[in-house]
Amino acid sequence: MTRQRLRAIAINSSIGFSALVLLLILGAARLVLKDARDSVFEDMRLRAEISSRRAGTALFPKEDLFSLHFLVNTLVLDKVIKYAVVTDQSGRIRSHSDPDKIGGQDASREGTAARGAGGSLTQSFTGPDGLAYHYFSEPVTVGSRRLGTMAMAINSETMKSRLAATTHKLVLIFLAALGALALLLQIRALMRREQLAAELKSVMVHTVSHEFNNVLTVLDAVIFLLEESEPDLVTPARAELYKTLDYERKFLKRFVKNILNEARMEAGKFRIEKKPLDLQDLAAGAIAAMGELLRRKKISFTLDMAKDPFIVSADPEALALAISNLMGNAVKYTPEGGWITIRVAAEKAGYATFRIENSGRGIAPADLVKIKTEFFRTGEGQAAAEGFGLGLKICSDMLALHGSALEIESEQGKDVRFSFSLPLTADKLPEAAGAAAEKQ
Question: Are the C-beta atoms of 356 and 326 separated by less than 8 Å?
Answer without folding.
Answer: yes
